[in-house]
Amino acid sequence: MRWLEVLAIGVYVFDRTGSALMVALVQLLRWLPLVLFGGLIGAYAERGRRKPPLLAGFVLAAVVSGGLGLLALEGRIALWQVGAGSFLMGVLWSGDYALRRTFLGDVAGPARLSTAMALDSVTMAATRMVGPLAGGVLIGAIGLHGAYLAGVLLYGLAALLLVRLVEPPPRAAAAGPRRPGAWRDRLADLRRNRPVMAVLFITVVFNLFGGPYVAVVPVIGKEILNLTPTLVGLLLAADGFGAFCGALLATAFGERLPAGRIFVFGTGVFLLGVLLFAFSDSFPLSALLLLAAGFGFAGFSGMQSGLVLRHSAPAVRRRMMGLLATCIGCAPIGMLHLGVMAELLGAARALQLVAAEGLAALILAAVVWRELHTPPARDSG
Description:
- The protein is mostly helical.
- It has one domain (2-164, 182-373): Growth Hormone, Chain: A (Up-down Bundle).
- 80% of the residues lie in helices and 0% in strands.
- It contains 16 helices and no strands.
- The longest helix has 30 residues, at 79-108.
């Protein structure tokens, strides 16, 4: 549903406004809660239960989707309501890393951590493939209300599945220091943890210069490639198909290769694919380039959480995952950056410049933190 909404809302807003900046701003609202709430949810996850807030989030998402779907069906939906809905869905998304993925790591245990995260990436990649295609079909054949009403079904199903889940008792977390300067100590610990620092920096790079590209795909698809909403959905589905294939390979062979190397290489492939996509004026070539970008995304997303969990002490893992969510929350800045540039220079030219900036920053990170992608022989990755 996440990717279905991204595509459907992007097409709808561009049809209504003709503005790449407005598309980016509405998508920005989906990411903003990661900045506002990522750290708070991470702190809660250190001591609290994960199931109740996740369940409440899915129920809220179903209710909001139903309300927006009815407004769209009656032709009374306004852009501010679409934006408000994106923000509320972003609140649900902000709990994904600190709550759901941390819980997944607890269940899997250290021995199966990389495999569990890779399997999680497989399911996310599959929905990244199916979601945009379904969104394009629904908004093209039915309208925006079709996309929202699909959310009632999917979010409701997620809530029902979560009700059946038996949550193990939370592990005891070490109490944080209360003396003055405690947060400075924590930041000092983070600075000494170079692998985690590298992952967080590259996560910021990805979300500033890579991930926001989805905001301008509907614009490029309609203005440059002259595509229907269904074909725009198919274009983004190519990214998802590449991510799905990459995630399957990571699941099968990820334990045999250094996770840090897969992480850095995958990020580079993604950024390069997006950069070349921005130069393409052919639908088949654009789809092929986004397929390659999706393949790289699988390396980035499949190893990201596992690297943070593996290189963090058990007592601070949830806190580090909350910090990871905050770094992912840099995406609104990237969305705004790309949206403003697209309004001034055009969507394709803006994406070319932003992706090039991301590649330059990634190369810098690979040089500064070489130990992430060149681990010692004893580290199996």
